[in-house]
Design a protein that fits this description.
single chain; binds NADP nicotinamide-adenine-dinucleotide phosphate; alpha/beta; globular; Rossmann fold; 48% helix
Length: 256
């Protein structure tokens, strides 16, 4: 499936992976709907897409606020028509260590990373089911595969996204709506810019967006990339705790 002439919403499009996805989708001829909280960055994105002849509409909204995200998607649908693809990409990474427990950060990540995906998919799924056509995409993370020290809350929020989307995907089999979970490794974005730990196989946001869009054309159930990082996570899954603790003393996954 190509994205030309498709109406595609990207949440978290004001920076990082979402920005790159929105730019590349517009370049491929999609009608792009972009959502984020920062109006200024959205206006910048809009200008840069329009300058290259792309079609884009933007809406300010917090994905963790159910009413706000519904209002944002309603306003985009009025401009773009029924939505063919929803890419629930918005997310945050903040520390969630054990001593002290950073419960507020865990709450934020569950609200934005997990419920934000649920609310975003909810805005378009009923209409997709009515039309028996559509593609739901959630940007999860390799962090979904292993609880890591210092980042337990982030990992839990992404594991929730992956499990939720797996359940949806199976339930929606034969209803005409595909569900894809994308699990990137380390991507060079504002989210990871403050990481002071090693980030194996770090990839640019542009390259990541290219890989994601190429994969989405096949509508896979899950897309993990890069594969070398997936292999590392597989090793980490079965490694003894003392090995992980030595390798990742305070967490080395995306965080603010
Ligand atoms: N970078 C990585 O290594 C990596 C790896 C695996 C998975 N991921 C996931 O990929 C996604 C994008 O990450 P990124 O690295 O591109 O992060 P980023 O550079 O920090 O960008 C995050 C985007 O999400 C938006 N956002 C954050 N909270 C929001 C909210 N409550 N409502 C609406 N928009 C919100 C931000 O815009 P506003 O601030 O304007 O709202 C921004 O556009 C996230 O889900 C992240 O967990 C990233």
């Amino acid at each position: 499936m190509s994205f030309a002439n498709r109406a595609v919403i990207v949440t978290g499009a004001s920076g990082g992976i979402g920005w790159a996805l929105a730019q590349q989708l517009a370049a491929q001829g999609a009608r792009v709907g972009a959502i984020a909280r920062r109006a200024e960055q959205l206006a910048e994105l809009e200008q840069s897409v329009r300058m290259t002849g792309g079609t884009i509409a933007t809406a300010v909204g917090d994905v963790g606020d159910r009413e706000a995200i519904h209002a944002a998607v309603r306003s985009l649908t009025e401009k773009l028509g029924p939505i063919d693809v929803m890419i629930a990409n918005a997310g945050v990474g903040v520390p969630s260590g054990a001593d002290p427990m950073q419960v507020h950060n865990v709450e934020t990540m569950m609200r934005v990373n997990f419920l934000g995906v649920v609310y975003s998919l909810e805005t378009v799924l009923p209409e997709m089911l009515r039309r028996r056509s559509g593609h739901l995409v959630a940007i999860s993370s390799m962090a979904a595969y292993k609880g890591l020290p210092g980042s337990a809350g982030y990992c839990a929020s992404k594991a929730a996204v992956s499990s939720y989307c797996e359940g949806l995907r199976i339930e929606l089999r034969s209803r005409g709506v595909a569900v894809t979970t994308v699990c990137p490794g380390f991507i060079d974005t504002p989210m990871t810019a403050k990481n002071d730990r090693a980030m194996p196989f770090l990839m640019s946001a542009d390259r990541a967006a290219r890989r994601i869009l190429r994969a989405l054309e096949r509508r896979p159930a899950v897309y993990d990339f890069p594969k070398r990082m997936r292999f590392l996570m597989w090793l980490a899954k079965w490694a003894p705790d003392r090995t992980i603790a030595r390798q990742i003393p305070a967490g080395a996954i995306p965080r603010e």
